[in-house]
Specification:
Rossmann fold; 28 strands; globular; binds adenosine-5'-diphosphate; binds zinc ion
């Protein structure tokens, strides 16, 4: 108990309630509970006509020290303190940091970090001690000299002393696919554990991590927890207790694991740091990579950002000497990187009588591969892709003159619109660059390939992998296993194919239409296209057999391909991309925020967004903030709600914060439905 406070004084506690309210609520603390409460405790309180759990932000204080004046009766009492559950100090600080940065109510953030389900004890039947098999699947091998060097550099950083004021200890492990990044993570995790500190590994997609989990667990000889939103409540409850008690020392999880109550954190690994799934798009729009670095700063932990294609944001930090750059330039096991061939789609070479754009040569190569009893991966564009207009002769896609983004096609209005600033033109009849009239919607028809391919190659046995198909984890595992066992020779799929699978018998990877990637109307489109193409190419030739990649496009001269083929330097691509970003104040040079108004009534939402735009313009006078729009969201209507957006850009974060804060007040006063997205992805 706090010795400054005598027990005669009434103690009061301010707690955050898991609701969308911005302020804290005060409760009286019964004497017998005082000693059990500290910052991070979770309590149960009466709230309105019901009860709720609530988060304790700071120690109880005397009622005299409160800003508000209360009569003793007005305050209700805390009902109970939830035993064993406590939010670690670094997580609490992280949530408070996020409250400020993302303009989100603290109670909601804490509820994301510590959902209510963790508070109810669940019976678990099975014995929970995980048995670590000393299996022989984890081969013991020497690290290569490149890997050793990487470990040495990061280890030096890890053991260096820092204060809270100094830079966070972050290294960017920039290693080509198959270069053995995971071994580097494991080695550093081992050192961290030896020092009595614990390890958190973030991955973009938990469904695909069983291989990774096995490697960590068998090599570290230490139980490794898995953490994700879909895991059973009982398991999560049990793991939470183990983490808080410091018994579970290594955790692999998807983005929400950044809040996991892991004790004594010494190392955070963020695998595939460039991956946009680290950005949460629900109500609380945080970026797990960014938050991980903030958390690491609080605990003085080391951070490893791993990627074959690091984000421009992280590379910029390297340039600014904030992060250490560590390279792995060679593949360890699978020898050389696959050979990449770019095929220009031309009407005369196209396979006839099918909808999907498929070149005769591509078809031939797929057939040969199948006949050699090797396997093929075919990558289609993401489903529901933007409807951009593309010239089939020169690959030109009409762009917004303000935003350097592809314009999207709106059928009803027969217009091409920029969904960021609202600029539009009437749909042209011919290509502005080459005058061709062969204009087509980007990527239309590619999905029909699943039915068309067997008519062309009778030997093709196809498995399909995409989010619509794969609704459950077990189903995903099943498809992947079927393919690995050779029950099919073609794996056809979307985005999900990209992530780290190891299929030794895959010797050909085909991308049906690369244009759909780099023409996506988002300023990160080219960066992402490069990441996806690199990653998907990395799936070919991981075994003994050499790999080949065929990328089909309407625009073979796109500079991106020169980088992929190795004819141009990666740095050239980055420089070019950086120039555009700098010019338009896009990240990593500028900061952005998206204000979104939503509602069932289209006219009302539109009018509100216009009023907000006016307000923002007035508020931004004398501030270095550019506002774009209002404009309807890329998908204007979703789940019955109309959505209109305003984009704010700046090079001065404080100015941006000022305008956002005022805008929030303005929307609240008007009782509009709105959301704020700081550092938005996919404009
Ligand atoms: P990345 O994560 O960079 O794509 P991985 O860590 O998955 O690469 O390594 C690719 C493959 O190489 C894995 O099968 C791994 O077991 C193997 N490997 C890693 N390091 C070594 C090494 N030093 N010697 C032999 N094989 C290795
Ligand atoms: Zn053209
Ligand atoms: Zn625009």
């Amino acid at each position: 108990m706090n010795s400054n406070i005598t027990s005669q004084e009434q103690l009061v506690l301010s707690v955050a309630i898991p609701r969308a309210v911005n302020h804290l609520f005060d409760y009286k603390v019964p004497d017998q509970l005082v000693s059990k409460i500290q910052a991070g405790s979770i309590v149960r309180v009466p709230f309105g006509k019901t009860q709720t759990h609530a988060f304790v932000i700071e120690k109880p204080k005397s009622i005299k020290n409160l800003e508000k004046e209360y009569s003793q009766i007005a305050l209700k009492e805390i009902l109970e303190v939830i035993p064993e559950m406590i939010i670690p100090q670094d997580v609490l600080k992280l949530c408070q940091w996020a409250e400020e940065y993302y303009f989100m109510p603290l109670g909601e953030i804490l509820n994301t970090a510590f959902p209510a389900l963790l508070l109810k004890e669940k019976k678990i039947k099975k014995a929970n001690k995980q048995i670590i098999e000393n299996d022989n699947t984890s081969k013991i091998f020497e690290l290569t000299s490149e890997q050793k060097l990487a470990v040495d550099i990061i280890e030096k950083l890890r053991v260096s002393q820092t204060t809270e004021q100094s830079q966070p200890k972050v290294s960017l492990l920039h290693g080509v696919t198959g270069s053995g990044k995971t071994e580097v993570y494991i080695e550093l995790a081992r050192n961290t554990l030896k020092d009595g500190k614990n390890v958190l590994v973030l991955v973009p997609e938990i469904a695909l991590t069983s291989q990774l989990h096995n490697r960590f667990q068998s090599q570290l000889k230490e139980p490794v927890g898995l953490w994700h939103s879909a895991m059973p409540d009982g398991k999560k409850y049990f793991q939470t207790k183990e983490l808080i008690a410091g018994k579970l020392r290594v955790l692999i999880g998807a983005r929400s694991a950044v809040f996991a109550p892991i004790k004594n954190l010494g190392l955070i690994v963020i695998d595939e740091e460039h991956d946009s799934s680290y950005k949460q798009e629900d109500r609380f729009k945080y970026h797990a990579r960014d938050l991980a670095i903030v958390r690491a700063k609080f605990t003085k932990a080391t951070v490893i950002l791993g990627s074959a294609t690091p984000s421009l944001e992280s590379q910029q930090r390297v340039k600014e000497k904030k992060y250490t750059h560590v390279f792995l330039k060679h593949r360890v096991a699978g020898g050389t990187l696959p050979k990449i061939e770019i095929i220009q789609l031309k009407p005369e070479n196209r396979v006839q009588d099918i909808q999907a754009p498929l070149d005769n040569k591509t078809l031939q190569t797929i057939r040969e591969t199948i006949l050699k009893k090797e396997q093929v991966i075919i990558y289609l564009n993401r489903r529901g892709f933007a409807a951009c207009l593309i010239c089939q002769d020169c690959g030109e896609v009409p762009q917004c003159k303000n935003c350097s983004l592809s314009l999207t096609y709106h059928k009803k209005q027969n217009k091409l619109r920029c969904h960021v600033c609202g600029y539009f033109v009437v749909t042209p009849l011919f290509c502005a660059k080459c005058q061709s009239i062969n204009l087509d919607l980007l990527g239309a028809g590619t999905e029909s390939l699943e039915t068309e391919l067997p008519t062309l190659i009778p030997e093709a046995k196809i498995l399909r992998l995409d989010r619509d198909q794969v609704t459950s984890h077990s189903r995903l595992e099943k498809i992947l296993n079927q393919f690995r066992n050779g029950e099919a020779n073609v794996l056809l799929g979307t985005q999900m194919l990209v992530k780290g699978h190891d299929f030794p018998n895959v010797t050909l990877v085909t991308v049906i239409l690369a244009d759909a990637l780099f023409r996506f109307p988002d300023f990160r489109a080219e960066e992402r296209a490069r990441q996806i193409l690199t990653q998907i190419s990395g799936r070919a030739g991981r075994g003994e057999l050499p790999g080949k990649v065929i990328i089909q496009t309407y625009q073979e001269n796109h500079p991106l391909f020169e980088v992929l083929k190795g004819n141009a330097k990666e740095t050239d691509f980055l420089e070019r991309e950086n120039l555009v970003r700098k010019e338009l104040s896009y990240p990593p040079f500028g900061r952005m925020a998206k204000l979104r108004l939503t509602g069932k009534n289209q006219d009302a939402v539109k009018r509100q967004s216009e009023e907000l735009a006016l307000f923002v313009q007035n508020t931004s006078k004398n501030k270095q903030v550019i506002s774009l729009g209002p404009s309807q969201a890329y998908l204007e209507k979703m789940k019955g709600q109309y959505r209109w957006d305003l984009i704010l850009k700046t090079s001065y974060i404080q100015d941006l914060r000022f305008v956002v804060e005022r805008s929030i007040e303005f929307c609240k006063t008007n009782r509009w439905h709105f959301s704020v997205d700081i550092d938005p992805y996919g404009l």
